[in-house]
Amino acid sequence: MAVDPPETRPAEPGLPGGPLAGAFREGRRQRLKPGAILFNEGDASGRVVLLLSGRVKASTFSGEGQETVLGFRGAGTVLGELSAIDGQDHSATVTVVEEGEALIVSAARFIEVLEDEPGLALTLLRSIIGRLRDADRKWAEFVALDVVGRVAHRILELAAESGEPAEGGGIRIGLVLSQRELAGWVGSSREAVNKALAQLEARGLIASERRQLVVLDVEGLRRRVS
Prior knowledge:
about 40% helix
């Protein structure tokens, strides 16, 4: 699904993304609708995106169409920078899952700014290193935890990133996530994830309300993944 044509507008100060927002001073503002594809795995787009609001999902797909969810990204995330730097095709598909806005610059302009402002290049390097560390942590988690533990860990992560107080207590996770997506995120089958959610709910750690998860016992979930 294609994204809407962007409208040109200079970037305002104080944008999400910290110092890296400086690379998008000449960016084009673009509305993002759920289901829109920002990047396709294996394609070359020639652009870099700064997410201002909303949320996106990064995924890879097997030859049989099996989705592996790499993670969800929110405001302040820079997307497509690796392909801009090395000139290779995108390594993941990025799909909009919550309506928002983004700033877009060409890959060539992004590289020009990094060359002109070495401080931004160092900031970008630190951001990339942070993602690599997170990937290492997730791999260690995959080896060490069972499916229930991995599901509990992801729920805690979502609660920290998109949680809000729920009526009657607990933390409501704002991101609506299907069991298929959660399965792709924890590296398991939908059936196993369904059983894991049922176990966590039976123990009073979570509740499911109107397609959203509510965390009832944060410490209980933490003990499950420790």
